[in-house]
Fold:
Amino acid sequence: MINGEKSFDRPLRWGMVGGGRTGQVGYKHRTGALRDGNYRLVAGAFDLDAKRGRDFGIRLGVDADRCYATYQEMIAGERDRDDGLEAVSVATPNFTHYEITKALLEAGIHVICEKPLFFTVEECDEIARLADEKGLIVGVTYGYTGHPLVYQMAAMVAKGMLGEIRIVDLEYTHGFNAGDDTDASEAQKWRTDPSKSGSTFVLGDIGTHLHYLSEIVLPHLKIEKLLCDRKAFIPSREPLEDHATVLMHYDNGARGRLWVSSVDAGNMGSQRYRFVGSKASVSWSDSRPNELIYEIQGEPAQVLHHGMPYLEDESLAVDRMGALHTEGLGDSWANIYLWIAEAIDAKKRGDEAFLGTHHYPGIKAGTEGVRWLQNCVRSAESGSAWIDYR
Structure:
């Protein structure tokens, strides 16, 4: 069980690009990073509005002279300090991820970036090479993938408790974009602008969460073919989509379905996962995060609760709250940030053996998310045709 003990002699000197007062994800990053004392927020370029960003940073406890107008100024201002930045989180619109990440790595700073990581696999490969050359870590934040019941599902699959996996059913929908974008916030508007969002809206914004979590649970399965059907029910969002269905064929013969939508009117937002094998199935949803439904063919359904001693060690090891209390999104983010901090520490110490077995969402996870998006777009633009996954 994780209990908040410090993992290192001192916290990493940490900063942010974006994540300011009007952003949607900044607080989630800070909730995760600051939970266990492994990071200390010392600098930031929090907002395109420099005055607002400086005021916000000061109110977070950052010294005024380390609240910068731009990330370029932050890099320059921190470069020669004995107490300069060691790691930075990038919580900005998609189209800025590549340039900011590259600049930070070139300055010798570890990076934790929002998803989708970049626009192309080629950009991911370039950044992976740069990070390797510099001896630095690139982490990626995938919300609920630090939840202990995710690792319960993964352990059950790995130990054969479900049998051979046959069906993968993934769903993440909400209704918050069911209307048009007339009164949308600036933080929302960029997501439907192809020049800023990239080639997808909901596939990249929420679909990548589903895809990466399924990779954690089913690391041995690879997609062979894929069909993506997408649509913008609000015409102004074209050529991007606010609704999509993806069908997948896996290399063991399993079949998968993934549904993402931001026009599911009335739905307050939920992720649902179901993995079906030849013996049994497991289902989990963030709307009931305490519970994992385990159904063995021919037996009554079982409701497994997080934190209980009958769960697998892999789940109990990453639990924070214990069985009596709800394990939520903030706890998941804290795990993700902890695992990335451990990777950064190992990289600084040159402990490649640890990194070889350590689990955290890194550059490979980010690259595979971008690869999946590229294949989805390629299928959709081919008339929702089946394509070979590459």
Notes: The first strand starts at residue 12 and ends at 18. The chain has 13 helices and 14 strands. The mean pLDDT is 96.
